[in-house]
From TrEMBL:
GO molecular function: RNA-directed DNA polymerase activity
Family recorded in the similarity comment: Belongs to the bacterial reverse transcriptase family.
Keyword Nucleotidyltransferase (UniProt): yes
Name under which the protein is recorded: RNA-directed DNA polymerase
Keywords noted in UniProt: Nucleotidyltransferase, RNA-directed DNA polymerase, Transferase
Domain named Reverse transcriptase: residues: 1-79
InterPro entries from the UniProt entry: DNA/RNA_pol_sf, GrpII_Intron_Splice-Mob/Def, Mat_intron_G2, RT_dom
């Protein structure tokens, strides 16, 4: 890719005592260092020169030099260090984006069957929730779910204008699948009834990601057991073993 080699250029620009680290995902990257001066006077010029050779420039909107205690956003998550503890949470911009998408879906499927509306909302909520399940996300999950409740409540009140609030709540917020949430019973073609329910983000649960060993390789036979243990299934076999490596490749 175009940015291949940038990490090497950054590390070779300063001595190790500068504590410069480089993290990249596709065309987005962050660089951390011992001081703001090092990043401004030594690292940034190297990055600009590297990009200039390839006809690229740093984006002024996305480029920022700040202290980690003030926080920064990367890949939809906010990183902030307080009292020597790093806090990673879903970014406010990401929360606003998913809320905007929830509102758009409700308006778009206003006249559609309820199962279709619930299914589309669940896709959005599950996708966003699973992405942030590895960080401190319980507060963000509550805010987003409360917003979903408010939007659905407003829509159901509009749909049943002549019905009292208590009737609307009992009709749509019922106990199903072990929890109380917005749900509807839909009659299937065979006469049976199926319950469709809004997915509660709190059901995802927080999980802390365990970093993969730096030198572990899923293509090496000696690391097969390590990756099997990570999958929590000791009986499973690794997808590609030493004998499966294509000819001419270097494992």
């Amino acid at each position: 890719m175009t940015l291949d080699g940038l990490e090497k250029a950054v590390h070779s620009a300063v001595p190790r005592r500068s504590r410069v680290n480089f993290v990249r995902y596709a065309d987005d990257f962050i660089v951390t260092g011992k001081s703001k001066r090092i990043l401004e006077t030594q690292i940034k010029p190297v990055i600009e020169a590297f990009l200039s050779e390839r006809g690229l420039t740093l984006s002024p909107e996305k480029t920022k030099i700040t202290y980690i205690r003030d926080g920064f956003t990367f890949l939809g998550q906010t990183f902030c260090k307080d009292s020597n503890k790093l806090h990673i949470t879903p970014s406010k911009e990401g929360m606003l984006a998913v809320m905007k998408e929830v509102k758009r879906i409700i308006l778009k499927y206003r006249s559609a069957p309820m199962p279709m509306l619930i299914g589309r909302l669940n896709q959005t909520l599950r996708g966003w929730g699973n992405y942030h399940r590895w960080v401190v996300s319980s507060r963000a999950f509550r805010k987003v779910y409360n917003y979903v409740f408010q939007q659905l409540w407003r829509e159901m009140k509009r749909k049943h204008r002549n019905k009292p609030r208590k009737w609307v709540y009992k009709r749509y917020w019922t106990s199903a699948k072990g929890l109380k949430a917005f749900s509807v019973k839909y009659k299937m073609k065979n006469g049976s009834k199926k319950i469709y329910q809004i997915f509660k983000l709190s059901r995802i649960g927080a999980k802390r990601y365990v970093k993969v060993r730096a030198h572990a390789n899923p293509y090496l036979k000696k690391d097969a057991q390590y990756f099997n243990n990570r999958r929590h299934n000791k009986k499973s076999k690794i997808a590609m073993t030493w004998g499966d490596v294509p000819a001419g490749s270097v494992p």
